Amino acid sequence: MENQKHVVIIYPHPDDESFGAAGSIYHFRKKGVPVTYLCGTLGEMGRNMGTPPFANRETLAEIRKEELKEACEFLDIDYRLLGYRDKTIEFEKLEHVAKDIKAILEEIEPSLVITHYPDHGVHPDHNALGEATIEAVRLMDEEVRPTVWASAITNNFEEVLGEPDIAISLEEHFDFKLDAILKHRSQAEGMLEKLDNTSDENKVYIDGLKGRLGKERFFTWKYD
């Protein structure tokens, strides 16, 4: 985490930055390190429309765009929309996506890029954008090439890949991550409903969330 000059996070959907990297963002921003989120799509094909529903297929994209803006303001980070269509990044030509990302990275000049680990991102968009990001960095001049942290989120990734070499614990800052996630109301309102419940069942739910989301782990990508 030390000595970073600018961090770029590249994930495909609004809310990925909060679920996947809010703790890391918190630590970087506390150190005064700028963070920029490159968001691949608007998540317009998502099935969550609010609980109870307040969006539909026509309005969801604009709602999620506004939620992303609010989340990034809360996280104190910049963001850019890459403009791809939700659930279609896997069908884009890898070299075209990589070229687009490379151009932005060469403009921003980050020291660190965070993305998904290909084949361990669960969602096809995660895998495809992670692969394109890693290729984009590979294509950069080695002298300016940023470090890449790749997050693996499949259930068996430790069996396949081993233990991640980067682990960032939220500890007492877990509420910060929850607040960032809840800015994406259309996707997280069911979670909010459970959090508002004061029952013993709710305590179990929060403990489970902390177990799943309370530590952000990454592999440092090795380029041969």
Main attributes?
single chain, 224 residues, alpha/beta, Rossmann fold
Number of domains: 1
Mind describing the biggest β-sheet? 7 strands, mixed
Computed CA radius of gyration, to the nearest angstrom: 17 Å
Give the beta-strand count: 7
What can you see in these coordinates?
By secondary structure, this protein is of the alpha/beta class. It has a single domain (7-220), classed as Rossmann fold (3-Layer(aba) Sandwich), CATH 3.40.50.10320. The protein is 45% helix and 15% strand. It contains 8 helices and 7 strands. A 7-stranded mixed beta sheet has the order 3-2-1-4-5-7-6, with helices on both faces. Helix 1 (16-30) crosses helix 6 (174-182) and helix 3 packs across helix 4. The longest helix is centred in the N-terminal third of the chain and has 16 residues, at 60-75. It is globular. The protein starts with 6 loop residues before the first strand and ends with a strand. The model has no long low-confidence stretch (mean pLDDT 91).
Topology:
Layout: E1 7-11, H1 16-30, E2 35-39, H2 60-75, E3 78-81, H3 94-108, E4 112-116, H4 124-139, E5 147-151, H5 157-161, E6 166-169, H6 174-182, H7 185-195, H8 200-213, E7 215-220
Parallel strand pairs: 1-2, 1-4, 2-3, 4-5
Antiparallel strand pairs: 5-7, 6-7
Helix pairs in contact: 1-6, 3-4
Concise description?
The chain contains 8 helices and 7 strands.
